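// run 5 | inverse folding | seed 20
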């Protein structure tokens, strides 16, 4: 799965003012990311507001990205939930055409045990036509996929090929890197931690900030993967302040505001999410001007 090393981008879903998917803006974003040199695209993750998209919306979004991409980059599809039977059923019915893998978040709200998490992913593994990337994000799900469980899944479920790790716990993530097979992908789920995690052996990132700055963030990721940390470090710090401010009022509100400043899409979101405040918008714009991303 070397094609999923490097910079993956958790794509936003642009909306029009009437809150229908803005497929024209989505095409523009897809081309922007491909031309920016991303390694792969991630469609309908949490950054893509997948939980507020109905079946028809999801089909329109995926079809738009796949047709625009036209096979140029690998595409990973977000398919997750807290009803194991339903998620497994979805995975068994996914049309794999144009897709490389699926990204499946840990079950939220139910708060399963570690054994429950193992059984959940075992069931998905047995149902999926595509390789699976685990997604651990305890801040959103209230459950933490621990290293022993990740290792158990990695060795027992052969089509589970990696994990997007967004626990924010570097020690935990280093343990995952150490205790899983060499070919098992460990992917940063936190933009701010990507540089130190690659230094510790991670394989790249599924990024939010990459929506807006694919060339810059990709250059940092690729330099780090080549052990060129003297090249990677200045880019990391150039982007650090804007990354920190992307999440002060939630995701994807911050990154959509930045994309609006870049004239890629408007900052419309479906409730219960709302756009950032004027203060945050102005702060993001100031940082972009200071770092010469815009004039």
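// decoded
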């Amino acid at each position: 799965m070397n094609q999923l090393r490097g910079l993956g981008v958790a794509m936003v879903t642009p909306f029009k003012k009437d809150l229908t998917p803005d497929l024209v803006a989505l095409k523009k974003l897809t081309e922007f990311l491909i031309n920016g040199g991303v390694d792969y695209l991630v469609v309908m993750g949490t950054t893509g507001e997948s939980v507020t998209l109905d079946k028809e919306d999801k089909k329109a979004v995926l079809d738009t990205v796949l047709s625009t991409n036209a096979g140029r980059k690998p595409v990973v599809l977000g398919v997750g939930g807290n009803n194991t039977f339903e998620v497994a059923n979805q995975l068994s019915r996914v049309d794999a055409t144009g897709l490389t893998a699926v990204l499946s978040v840990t079950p939220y709200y139910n708060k399963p045990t570690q054994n429950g998490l193992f059984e959940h992913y075992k069931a998905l593994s047995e149902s999926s036509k595509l390789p699976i990337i685990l997604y651990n994000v305890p801040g959103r799900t209230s459950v933490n996929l621990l290293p022993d469980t990740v290792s158990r899944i990695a060795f027992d479920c052969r089509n589970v090929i990696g994990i997007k790790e967004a626990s924010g716990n570097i020690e935990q993530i280093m343990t995952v890197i150490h205790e899983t097979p060499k070919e098992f992908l460990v992917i940063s789920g936190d933009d701010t931690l990507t540089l130190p995690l690659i230094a510790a052996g991670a394989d790249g990132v599924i990024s939010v900030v990459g929506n807006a700055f694919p060339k810059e963030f990709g250059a940092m990721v690729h330099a780090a993967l080549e052990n060129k940390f003297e090249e990677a470090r200045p880019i990391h710090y150039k982007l650090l302040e804007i990354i920190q401010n992307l999440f002060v009022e939630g995701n994807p509100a911050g990154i959509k505001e930045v994309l609006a400043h870049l004239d890629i899409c408007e900052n419309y979101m479906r409730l219960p999410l709302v756009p950032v405040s004027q203060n945050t918008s102005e702060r993001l714009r100031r940082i972009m001007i200071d770092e010469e991303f815009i004039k």
